[in-house]
């Protein structure tokens, strides 16, 4: 069994006390570009989401986990989405909320833990990530962990300033 605890962080299920954290994240317009969000979320809607966050990945096709420091400070989220058990694949996404918490190795550790879980526990064959072409930090992170760029989706993401390319990265179970 894979341990969801690393040297500096651990991954855990969402809890009711994460409501304020989730509210800040989901309503941060700087994140909307990559999340596809078009409008703010109310605490009521997010509370309902948290009430159902325990549902099985095989049922809801998604697994969202908090990235927590060893002193129980939630610093970000990591998730599997578009879970496809037939083809044994899923998308993977990660966000560390505060810029001052980035580039400390926590994202890499979280990504490594979730990849190990996905390949060994869920028995996935491959994971993929969609990353904006301009997001050099995320590109570096995923490449460092063995993801390979396999394509470019031209003009894929519409923003206020025009369209942006999105890169597709893939990691196949070794």
Automatic annotation (TrEMBL):
Residues 9-170 form the N-acetyltransferase domain. Pfam families: Acetyltransf_3. CDD domains: NAT_SF. InterPro entries: Acyl_CoA_acyltransferase, GNAT_dom. It comes from the Bacteria. This is GNAT family N-acetyltransferase. It comes from Flagellimonas spongiicola.
